[in-house]
Amino acid sequence: MAPGKTTARRTGAVIVFADETALSLLPPVRATWAPRGRTPILRVRMGKRPKTSLVGWCCYPPDGLPKFLYRMVSGSVTDRDLIRQLPDIHRTFDRPIVLVWDNLGSHRSRRMRAFAERVDWLTLVFLPPYSPDLNPVEGGWAHLKSGPLANLGARTLDELVAVARQGLRDIRHRPVLLTGFLAATALTR
């Protein structure tokens, strides 16, 4: 049985997977169609490329539909950003959380460990190193970057964020996608 699985079952906890990604004006390039002999051209602005970061939370309650929550952060995601967001995730479900994520420094920081020890509703579980295939949030990022953001030549960060938000809302309103993201990891609830 996976680490944390017995804890989640025993306490009625929500299993939450978390991951971060960055979005910039340089689009994720994907295959596309064009008339024969006309190579598609993707126009993007060169120079300074502002970025925004996303934190995604795939939440699997023991007795309900899965939920996808996200937060946008300007710049890079820090342990302080994550600590600020965790109480909101907890309030959403009002039950203990078993948080499963990778070994990023901000996930293992002294500040994060102190926060987890201070609250009684949070259990941290770490994925093995180099195993993004075990995190269903990665499926969400792939869905977003190969769908609405694929080949998007956004001119401004605001335009990029608007398209990303629409794609994230699509994921939020389709719990069957979240079930599929979890199934693709070969993990079980």
What does this protein look like?
There is one protein chain. The chain has 189 residues and is an alpha/beta fold. It has a single domain (5-23, 50-184), classed as Nucleotidyltransferase, domain 5 (2-Layer Sandwich). Helix content is 38%, strand content 21%. It has 7 helices and 5 strands; from the N terminus they run H-E-E-E-H-E-H-H-E-H-H-H. The chain has helices spanning 5-11, 79-93, 105-108, 110-118, 136-146, 157-172, 175-184; strands at 14-24, 51-60, 67-74, 97-101, 122-126. A 5-stranded mixed beta sheet has the order 3-2-1-4-5, with helices on both faces. Helix 5 crosses helix 7 (175-184). The protein is globular and about 60 Å long. The mean pLDDT is 86.
CATH architecture name: 2-Layer Sandwich
* CATH fold title: Nucleotidyltransferase, domain 5
Number of distinct helices: 7
**What is the share of helical residues?**
25-40%
Order of helices and strands: HEEEHEHHEHHH
The CATH homology group name: Ribonuclease H-like superfamily/Ribonuclease H
Briefly, what CATH class? Answer: Alpha Beta
Widest beta sheet: strand line-up: 3-2-1-4-5
Q: What's the structural domain tally?
A: 1
Basic shape = globular
Strand content: 15-25%
Mean pLDDT: 86
Largest sheet: 5 strands, mixed
- Distance from N terminus to C terminus (CA atoms, Å) equals 11 Å
Structural class, by secondary structure, is: alpha/beta
Q: How many strand units? A: 5
